[in-house]
Design brief:
Layout (H helix, E strand, L loop, with lengths): L1 H15 L3 H29 L5 H29 L2 H17 L2 H13 L8
Helix pairs in contact: 1-2, 1-4
Length: about 120
């Protein structure tokens, strides 16, 4: 979730920035957090998939990611021609925030399980 939120903030910042060094810094920070997103996805797969199906789930998700990346690049080009580039970056950041918000129920479930066991749980 943290990776998505940082990437969303950097994406919106890149779209709003007109200063090259700020844009480069935001791109670098965003790039450092993309592995957090990938690790989070793999962790969710490992926690929520039976051992016998982990390879199948990972094998199915990889082509979906690649295909959606192509569709995203295609739609990004069309949207850029229709709207301003800043708006496209802002919408992209908002979609990442929406994705992060979809993780809140998982975090709430994890917190409830930790409290039920009497553990102290720090939100991540």
């Amino acid at each position: 979730m943290a990776g998505l939120l940082v990437s969303a903030a950097c994406t919106v910042g890149v779209g709003a920035s007109s200063i090259v060094w700020i844009t480069l810094a935001l791109q670098a920070i965003s790039g450092l957090f993309y592995p957090c997103i990938q690790i989070g996805i793999q962790t969710l797969i490992l926690r929520n998939t039976e051992g016998a199906f982990i390879g199948r789930v990972s094998g199915a998700i990889s082509p979906i990611f690649m295909g959606m990346m192509v569709i995203g690049m295609l739609s990004g080009g069309v949207l850029k021609d229709t709207f301003s580039l800043s708006l496209v970056y802002a919408v992209s950041g908002c979609l990442m925030i929406a994705g992060a918000l979809l993780l809140l129920p998982l975090i709430a479930i994890r917190h409830r399980k930790a409290v039920g066991k009497g553990e102290k749980h720090e939100p991540t």
